[in-house]
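Write out this protein's structure.
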Amino acid sequence: MFKICLKIKEANGEGCLISGGSSKDGHVPLINFIPIIKKVKKLGLKIVMHTGLIDQNLAEALASIDVDGVMIDIIGSNETINKVCHLNSTIESFENSLSLLESNNIPSIPHIVVGLHFGKLKGEKEALKMVARHRIAALVIVSLMPLEGTKMESIAPPSPIKVAKVILAARFLMPNIPLLLGCASPRGLYKIYLDAFSIKAGVNGIAYPSDEAYGLANKLKLKVKTFNECCSLLWKEF
């Protein structure tokens, strides 16, 4: 890991996303990598991480290395947690993770995957309420991507307007939180419509915006700025 991060630094890269698979209880086994990540941080790189669920030990470790952001999917349905993610966890585990990040002053950037329950909306409202109860750095909304070779490859994703309604609910519920449309969503015409609806719903940023998104933003006389980094770090601009 350190050699890879050193190459990033030597290539004038600005940071890295550290991710990994989770255990059956939803935790990504990161604790043994903390000393290396601390060395990487000293290189001057920005570090954002996919952690899965958080426990006290990991929260304290992340706080000690001054990580720039933690991305965690928030799921508001026990049925989705069990049947889609196949985790032996509950909604309370996700709430506890947000609490630990907050109490340890770690910038958290929760993600909500709209349509995660086999393309249907189930638990998104509860996920929004859960996130709104905590101090977060930003909120990222993404849409289910039916990936080829997975059991969901034939599942239809939620329509762009349904995703936009979740974004709009988030905007009303958390008017002062940076709200972002993340990089995970179907491409093509779907992406064009979702970008447009998201701008009208009040997002502050869009990952990989379509040409049409730029056109609409200019038409609405919005101030457009471009950032060549993960959208989870845009909270620093606010």
